[in-house]
Amino acid sequence: MDTSKPAAFVNGEFLPMYVGRRVRAVVQNVQPAAGVTRGNTTDERPLIIKGSPPFQLTTYMEVIGIADTNQSIQAEKWTSFGNTFDASTYNQLCRLANGEHKNFAPAICPKLQPAIDASLP
Amino acid sequence: MYSTTQFDGNVAFSGGGFMPSQATQSAADPSFSPAKNRDAQGLLPLTVKQISEALLSSDDKSNILIDGVDVNNVTLVGMILNKTPRVTDVSFKLDDGTGLVYCTRWVNGEASETREMDAVEDGMYVRVHGHLKSFQGKKQLVAFAVRPITDFNEITTHFLECIYVHLYNTKSTLQGGISTQTAMINPVTNTPSKGYQAPPETEFSGQYSVEGVKSIDQRVLDYMNSILEAFKSLEAEGLIYSTVDEWHYKSTANG
Question: Considering only CA atoms, which of A55, A113, A46, A60 is closest in space to residue A89?
Fold first, then answer.
């Protein structure tokens, strides 16, 4: 068992809470652009992913990596989620895990509290 | 589960006395002991984080408890890492984003088992069904099914199920009493897709407001009236007869 390197579910809204930490996000409508990949998060916010997927682009892709800034992720792993994926339900899951019902978070989002503490001035 | 009709029968024909509550009744009945729950064989959707924080129950069976529920068979969704095939088994780590758990899939030389494990590779998302074991203080999963995920909505669904089952079990446990029984029984009996049974309504769950009579008083009176009606009906059918006065009856069949 090792729970020291969790990857939190994020959308564009919650990415800033995890800067410097490992996150997982689904991006849609990705476009390659000069060494980086641009796309939208499941809540339709722009996201820059540093790195390129090792396979052909699909409409939905999951990226696991370290959150660099409020709007970018340094990619470690890419997974194609294909061309049909329910992004809105995934977005709701992110919201459940992070915001609207914080008491849900301990089950799936283990390092939430330290991440919040770290993001505070 | 006790149905309401069984309760009425007990009260009416067991020689009187007050009606025991469901909670009292279950406490006296050893079949409701959580540790011996026959339904603990079900499949519980979990995250690695929940497994890592699980308590080992204090009895000598080294059972694992999560949210107050005895855990045996679990289902997880995550990414395969470090897959290592050996002659008799394939070991791998499963990363579901909340942590890593060590898994073993025994392959007894059967072609289907070997094919199943050949189909999964490092970095693939899979659903694992397995038996959660604790060995020398370390929890590990003995997998009996490892299947690649083809529809990635299954990942979302799995985590939503984890939240749902987690909340269902923790909330039910907090409420105690009647709800505890359903918490122990339902989540592991039914597969999550079937949904869960709502806690049974208690005798006083309804709200009644009658002028001059408090709601519970009125409820008791209604209940007594229903008993009186039952007595009249039984008397009319010749199954009971009045004795010293109109409030004392005897059964014609049992003397």
Answer: A60
CA dihedral for A72, A76, A82, A84, sign (positive or negative): negative
- Stated pTM of the model: 0.65
Please measure the distance between the N-terminal and C-terminal CA atoms of chain A and give it in whole angstroms: 33
Q: What is the ipTM of this complex?
A: 0.84
pLDDT digits (tens, 9 = 90+) for A67-114: 999 999 999 999 999 999 999 999 999 888 886 554 444 445 544 444
Distance, in Å, from the CA atom of B245 to the CA atom of B242, rounded to the nearest integer, reads: 6
Reported in sequence order, the residue ranges of B5-157 that DSSP labels E, i.e. its strands, are 43-45, 55-56, 64-66, 69-71, 73-85, 89-95, 100-106, 125-135, 138-148
- A104–B167: do the CB atoms touch at under 8 Å? yes
B26: nearest Cα among B186, B188, B184, B195:
B184
What domains can be seen in chain A, in order of their start residue? 8-119 (2.40.50.140)
Interface of A with B in 47-106 (CB under 8 A): 60, 62, 64, 77, 79, 81-82, 85-86, 89-90, 93, 96-97, 104, 106
Smallest Cβ–Cβ distance between B100 and the set A1, A93, A104 belongs to A1
Measured in whole angstroms, the distance separating CA A88 from the mean position of its chain's CA atoms is 14
